[in-house]
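ok trying again, last paste got cut off:
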Amino acid sequence: MSDLSAQEFVANFFESFTREVVAGDDAGAVVDRYYTPDIEQIADGIRLDRQRLIDHLRPVRKNVVSCSYDVHEAIRTADRVAARFTIHAELRRGRSIATEVYLFGELAPDGRMRRTTQATRDVSTR
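nice, full thing came through this time. structure:
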């Protein structure tokens, strides 16, 4: 485990992942840097494996101009992470969205994400 606090780990993980995706780097290569090949991500009951996660990144890349993360709380052990954070995204057509995320994850020894379960809710101001 690194010297980063749990909150710093979560912020760094998702901010750098999103930055690489939005920058246009190869989606498969980006996913492989941050997630294990057997990734299973369940978000609001929808299961994504590696390929479905890569496919999910296409609209993100197309629509997101910038993104930031406010990590409200996080706990991390060597192989587990739990966090509550808000994603703030600016979209191409000038719209802003905010999504609160409750995440429970399993980490590989190298720090990549192996499994996540997430619940989200829209907290955008209209």
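cool. The first helix runs from residue 6 to 22. The chain has a mean pLDDT of 94.
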